[in-house]
Amino acid sequence: MSKPLQLELMALSTWRAFSIWLLKATLIILAVNALFLAVLSISGNSLNSIIFSSFFSKITLFESGATFLIGGALAFSGSVLIGKAKEQLLKSEEKWSMEKLRKRENTANKYIAFAVILFFASLIISFEGF
After folding, report:
1. The pTM is what?
2. What is the average per-residue pLDDT within 70-77?
3. Which of 13, 23, 57, 115 could be stapled to 125 by a disulfide with Cβ–Cβ 3.0 to 4.6 Å?
4. Structural domain spans, the chain
């Protein structure tokens, strides 16, 4: 079974690529949050009411939940059940393989790790009162 986040199994270049992916995902989430903030402030809400209504805590919790769902769906889409069902029901020529499963799990692990970071950020933001 693939264990992509163990230190002794991952090369430095893999960690670097994973860190760059996390940085890009974080920048996308920050841009989405800034867009939400801009839309809410343009619609007539004051900046203080937006910040102190725990908006950021709720939106970050929502984003972490959505990211968990995406990661879970990616992991499930590479499973044996889905692969064999696709072969049988859709008469697909594409055969299920262990390599495809590992590739899907590695992709899903990125999303799940990012969702964990977002969840803890949501907890920190809620304890801080924002």
Report:
1. 0.74
2. 90
3. 57
4. 12-128
